[in-house]
Amino acid sequence: MPAETIAIDRDIQAEKRAAAEGLRRQFTERGTFVVNLVSSPGSGKTSLLEATCRRWRDRWNVAVLVGDLATDRDAERLRPYVAVEQLTTGGACHLELSLVEKGLAKLPQVPRDFLFIENIGNLVCPASHDLAEHLRVVCISTTEGDDKPGKYPKMFRTSEVMVITKTDLLPHVPFDVANVTEDARLIREDMQVIETSAINDIGIDAWCDLLEQRRDAMLAEASES
Amino acid sequence: MHERSLVRGLLRQVDQIAAEHDEADVAEVTVEVGPLSGVEVDLVKIAFEEQCGVVDLAKDPEGEGSLARSTTASTRLEVLEVPLIVRCTQCHAESDLSDFVFRCVSCGSGEVQVISGDEFRLISLTLAEGANHAR
Ligand SMILES: Nc1nc2c(ncn2[C@@H]2O[C@H](COP(=O)(O)OP(=O)(O)OP(=O)(O)O)[C@@H](O)[C@H]2O)c(=O)[nH]1
Ligand SMILES: [Mg+2]
Ligand SMILES: [Zn+2]
Description:
The structure holds 2 protein chains of 2 kinds. Chain A is of the alpha/beta class. Chain A has 8 helices and 8 strands. In chain A, 38% of the residues lie in helices and 21% in strands. The model of chain B has no long low-confidence stretch (mean pLDDT 87).
């Protein structure tokens, strides 16, 4: 048999993309707004979620899936406020949709209003994995330098909101909010920017408002179609 | 590094296609990678070498025994790198971006859509001459 070349031309991740799309549609129909939180390690994702869930305890039905390479420390921090399930990746540097599905099945119930997915601290690999979210949010803390967006373009291109965390430390660190905003908007011109300090409870109102508005927009769009 | 799991997905598809072609062995796999795909070309090559021809369950981290039956240690990976091109939603010009500054080169607008550069695609397979792994 002579050598034969077969033309294929297909997206290698097509199946995964379709699965994420399908799950997102189910969430939309149910009215559950899904947020995928990404950042480098220690940027303050769990702290932001603690502040959010504390505030929303009697307002919205919320659940959190929190990814970690090992340990359930983040889940334990959130448990006082919210239904939470730990997703342990066993070393993998990002969450995949299959792990999210497993976590969902373990939750006592699918959240009615909001589902937060805290990704693994990593600005590279999580950028390439659609977790069926409606909104991808990238956190950047004032201690990690204001030059990060340009260094991790895919993450900032695929995120719609940038939360600048730990703003209480601004007087002590060389971090310019204007610089980081400009850098992010070179990659994504319409990037929404929010400044927060979880330990002082600053900016959490604006953050919660933004999420409520986004969920309303999702519900409005769903009822039109 | 998530390239390992991406390559696992790729090899699974290669196996399926080879199975539809008389279980032929695969000599070469051609893929297309864009700068915004989130896929590092060097890491894909390493992962490909690691996994090609691995049918040993113990070596397969996800325990999927049928992995990479159609490839062998000598299967080549050809990577075609594609440029990052955006189209302006204002003036409709296309810009070939050399860095990740998403601006239209013609009018400066930031309202641009990626039309090439985020792909990780399987382009073609070349089957080995006469070889066949149906056993
Ligand atoms: N000063 C200050 N410290 C903060 C703030 N938010 C979080 N931290 C601290 O930053 C450290 C990391 O916060 P986490 O919330 O665990 O960050 P994370 O992004 O969830 O971390 P990983 O899940 O490990 O990637 C902790 O010591 C927090 O107390 C803040 O607003 N101000
Ligand atoms: Mg955390
Ligand atoms: Zn233009």
